[in-house]
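#lab-general

N.A. 3:47 PM
ok so I finally got the sequence cleaned up, no stray characters, all 422 residues accounted for. can someone with queue access submit it? mine expired

B.Y. 3:52 PM
send it over

N.A. 3:53 PM
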Amino acid sequence: MGRGRMRPEDEASRRRRQDEAYYNEEEYADEYEDEEYEEPPVRQVRPRSRVPQRVQRAPQRSYPPNTQHRTSNPTRSLRPRPRRRRSVWPVLLGGCAIGIFFTVVAAAVIVFFTVRTAQTGGIPIIGGGSIGGSTQTFTNDTTQAITLTSLAQMQICNKIGNVSVVVDPNANAASIKTTKIVHMSSKASADQEFGRINVSIQQPNTGAKSLTCASSTSSGTPTASATSATGSASGSALLINTTIPDSDGLLHGGGDAVDINITLTPKLFATASAPLQLNIQAALGNVTVDGVSGILNIVGSSGNVTVTRATLISGSSIGTGQGDVAFNGIVAAPSDVTTQGSFVIRSEKGKLDITLPGSTNLVLSANTNIGTIHSDFPITATTSSGSASYRGPLNTSATTQSSAVLTADVSTGDIIIHKGAA
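B.Y. 4:20 PM
back already:
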């Protein structure tokens, strides 16, 4: 063999070394994935023409293409992880709890309507009356004489119905008239319902006993006291308390109500050693007070309040939640102008109509969130964004200004102040 010719074994070894070098370059390039890498061209080896036929070419080793990449390579497709299935038990338990709640509510409503239907002959509706039954309005009047010789404290508690307290100079005797009102399909059902309504009248001989309002029960029997009367007074006291079955909830029973009309005589106050303390609590109904002088505390919820020919003493408060308040009388500020005095007339939603003598001397604190202030007295209210307010002397012509304050407050409604006779 000549010097320039390569042995077959050497040629095969050289090709094997070239293939291994190319494979190593592929692995080396994979370690630098962030760098761009171009695959080197495959070197074509031109076959030699003088290779003897007896020399056979060594078989090429086939290497699989390197398609696997590391996780850091952005072109590598990751196998998604299987999602974890949520448990259905919380959903099932929550649905069962909601279903049980609505079932209990529906059962309670069915029982209520069943009982009231049996009593009224029809399906009861909110606020009284019934649907599908032929009902009528039945009344039951009771009049009781007031045996007291003097009166210093009076508490009236009425959940549903109108309340009227009038001092009549022409009356020969003082009395209490109560009218029970029910809506039933028959007189027998009405008589049964009358028995469930309780009207309690107490005339203690001394004012030492605390006068309180009792709450209602399903049978109409009074329970423990709910609200105490404010203040205490020496002399005789009078307590009138009505309890109507099922009157504490929204679906109160069948429109039952009690109207209270009290007639007083002036001689009841002639011998009293202290001014009258009148406390009225009326949840649903109108309140009318005429000719009463003293410390008046009237608390209404839904209804109008009208006070006429009255004289308010410091500490009086007249108000309602939904309704108009009308006052026509005297606000008796302390004779000593340096003495503090407090009077309140208010309504959450309604109109305040106040009539005072032209010589009234006190500080007016009036405010309405949505409304206006009109006054016959020379005052200038401040208005802003639909609201109005004023605080200052009511009678600017008074020589010495009083320290007593009359608060007129309404959330939604107008305040109107009239100037009456001096």
